[in-house]
Amino acid sequence: MKKTLALGLLALACIAPAQASAVQLNIAHRGASDARPEHTFAAYDHALTLGADYIEQDLQITSDGVLVVMHDETLTRTVRGPAENCTGRVDSKTLAQLKTCSAGDWGKFAGGAYVSEKIPTMEEVFQRYGKTVNYYIETKQPEPGENMEAKLLALLDKYDLRESAVTDWQVLIQSFDANSLKTIHAMDPRLPLVFLGSLNPTSIQAVREYGVGIGPSFGGVTKANVDLAHAACLNVHPYTVNTTADIQRMLELGVDGMFTNFADRLETLLGAKAAPGLTGASIAAAETRRCRGEQKDVPAQVGGSVPATLSLTMGAPASFEPFIPGVERVYTAGTTAKVISTAGDASLTVSEPGHLTNGAFTLASPLGVTIAPNAWSGPVSNADAAITFTQPIGRTEPLRTGTYAKTLTFTLSTTNP
């Protein structure tokens, strides 16, 4: 049965090579691990500023059962501090011991700006970034009695990341240990898993049963095997691709993403094709579901019409304070208008103001009216227009007892309904 499946996949790839990936993911290998000490918050923060779609975590487990983020089984290469706490195997130390060590005082970073960086726990990583980033987590050398896989899934649940891992690939879980991935698959077959190993017909056939992708060493990646993986609806994420020439070659082979210590180089080569924010992971997840027949997108139109509308609502009538005979002054009063227009433009005008009258008596100076704003270049809804009235009164102007008034007509119109 397995032999037949492998031949069928190979035939499919030869007849109809898979199309280029909808998105190619920028996976920050141990964070921005060339510019910052690997697997530190400094490395992760910097990777995100460089455009990484994912930040990677390698898991080890302490002697008191805490998941910590570190690549090596031993502390020798990347940790400095008291020998009794900061040398030897990670699984021989408690978390309290490891927290006395520096994770940023080694190699080219020794004595530099990152001496205070500590070994983070996986929980601390989730606490720091929550749902604002995508995680690519590797279970490393898991021992059956350590329950690394169960501990990881418990943390995903605690920080509400399991469902987003399933639907949007906010968390991808990888391992060189197929049994570790199969253990997770048995716990929750929905979770996206990536096998780290060779890319060939045999591995493609095996991984298709439980995973969504393969992470091979980039040197052995070929177009034929990338197409074969795509025909099996598997993603290809090679590691660790650092030179500009190698990054470009992987992109041209059509891989779905790659691990790199130089997220900025990959982001530059991706250019406008780089996925914004967290969207790259969800695009990749949806493409894989479509390939596997687990998702079908059917367009369904929905819409609504807008009736032609020009609406003008005037505020309270404007009223000047009492005119004082014998005092030269310009009186002001105001009101507002609310404009609703669905037209391409609109303007608000007023009829000739003329003069205020009180029976047979008329004020000498005409009424002044200003409207601001009085024109709109597109649709508006409940836009306010301030209407200001001015009325000059002369020192020798005779005023009759009573009320001076006039009714004006305001007009809202358009030239582009």
TrEMBL record:
Q: Name one Pfam family in it.
A: GDPD
Q: Which UniProt keywords apply?
A: Signal
Q: Which residues form the signal peptide?
A: 1-20
> Which InterPro entries does the record cross-reference, listed alphabetically?
GP_PDE_dom (IPR030395), PLC-like_Pdiesterase_TIM-brl (IPR017946)
Q: Which domain of life is it from?
A: Bacteria
Question: What is this protein's record name?
Answer: Glycerophosphodiester phosphodiesterase family protein
UniProt xrefs under SUPFAM superfamilies: PLC-like phosphodiesterases
GP-PDE domain location: 24-270
